Amino acid sequence: MNFHRFRARGRLLAAIGTGTLVLAGCASPTPYQPATGYGFNRTGFSEQRIESNRYMVSFSGNSLTSRETVERYLLFRAAELTVQQGFDHFILVDRNTDRKTRTYVDRPFGPGPYGFWGPSWRFYGSWGWRRWDPFWGDPFYNDVDVRTVDRYEAVAEIVMGKGPPPRDNVRGFDAHEVMSNLGPTIKVPK
């Protein structure tokens, strides 16, 4: 009889472990793809034509995408767009990388905006912000979690041209060379 109980418990633990691994696999940096979503949740690349040889190009990453990756994907998209439009080089007229930050607060259950109030102290421990209450003494009761999420978006205005890039302009890039050098580091969706 105990054997069946342990066997059922083993199946339950295996199912929980599998579910955890599946969910963990969903969280990954933004791949190189066209933009999806809106506002703070927008990820991927986009471009806006300004003139026949001038574009505004952008790449937005999610909270797991590093600033370096966002800037690298932006350069790759500028080079790719340049080649798609029949040009050989591009010049970065203007470039900017913004960090967008949002703070989420998970408040305790209770009436009003602050939950049940009483004398307490907050501290930052290994599990995030916690609260200590001298009467209850349980650091996990009625806790408050504060999470800050950072995302990066890189935007550049580019001017495209034919032939090699101007030698005297350090903001000029050979589109084919950029694509061949950065191409192996670009992760596309599966």
Q: Can you characterise this structure?
A:
Keywords: Signal. Residues 1-24 form the signal peptide. This is DUF4136 domain-containing protein. The strands form 2 sheets. Strands 1-2-6-3-7 form a 5-stranded antiparallel beta sheet. The two termini are 46 Å apart. The longest helix is centred in the first third of the chain and has 25 residues, at 2-26. 27% of the residues lie in helices and 33% in strands. With 190 residues, it is an alpha+beta fold. It has a domain at 30-107 and 144-185.
In short:
By secondary structure, the chain is of the alpha+beta class. The protein has helices spanning 2-26, 67-84, 175-182, and strands at residues 44-51, 54-60, 89-106, 121-125, 128-132, 145-161, 172-174.
Write the topology of this structure.
Layout: H1 2-26, E1 44-51, E2 54-60, H2 67-84, E3 89-106, E4 121-125, E5 128-132, E6 145-161, E7 172-174, H3 175-182
Antiparallel strand pairs: 1-2, 2-6, 3-6, 3-7, 4-5
Helix pairs in contact: 2-3
What would the principal axes of the Cα set say about the shape?
elongated
β-strand percent reads: 25-35%
Question: How many beta strands in the DSSP annotation?
Answer: 7
How do the helices and strands follow one another from N- to C-terminus? HEEHEEEEEH
Helical stretch count? 3
Rounded mean pLDDT is 82
Helix vs. strand class: alpha+beta
Instruction: Tell me the strand order in the biggest sheet.
Output: 1-2-6-3-7
Protein name: DUF4136 domain-containing protein
Keywords: Signal
Organism: Hephaestia caeni
Signal peptide: 1-24
